[in-house]
Amino acid sequence: MAATPPSGGIRARLAERGLSLPTVAAPVAAYVPAVASGNHVHTSGQLPFVDGALPLTGKVGAEVTSEQAAELAATCCLNALAAIEALVGDLDRIVRVVKVTGYVSSDPSFTAQPSVINGASELLGEIFGDAGSHARAAVGVAVLPLDAPVELDLLVELDGPAVPSD
Questions:
Q1: For burial by CB atoms within 10 Å, which of 10, 15, 116, 131 has the most?
Q2: pLDDT by residue (tens digit) across 22-52?
Q3: How far is residue 1's CA from residue 21's CA, in Å, rounded to a whole number?
Q4: pTM (whole model) above 0.85
């Protein structure tokens, strides 16, 4: 992971990389994009939606390359960060990325799921520095919703209660 990032805020670090947070994707079933619990936020699984659509579909190792899937994992990560910001108001409240769970819709012969989820892990390291180091699972699955190649969820710790009490 990268060293501690310079000051300037998460949005500024994203902008330095030519990235921005998307609009939070509407859930495709009966759930919410993110839930607060104490000082933590858990996101639901985020698909790699770009402007409301999946840029690629299919199995990694067949219709989708490992490199394309890693880029999609980074997109999933941006979608998860957007869900967190929508819930807590400011990504600069994140003091630690605790865990990333990545799911890769894999061709039966594909075994490089960790390299795919590195697309998200490396992005988190770039924008959060040491606070972006996290525990992780990279799981190969038969199929994901809407035939997405990748899905990702995040668990982050905040600087205080996720939703301030009145």
A1: 116
A2: 999 888 789 999 999 999 999 999 999 999 9
A3: 21
A4: yes
Q: Which residue has the tokens 């495709």?
A: 28
Of 150, 157, 135, nearest in space to 50 by CA = 150
User: Which residues of the chain fall short of a pLDDT of 70?
Assistant: 1-7, 164-166
Q: How far apart are CA 118 and CA 71, in angstroms?
A: 9
Place of tokens 């699984």: 45
Closest to 158 in 3D by CA, of 102, 100, 101, 98: 98
Range 42-158 has CATH code 3.30.1490.190: no
Q: Coil, strand or helix: which one is 51? A: coil
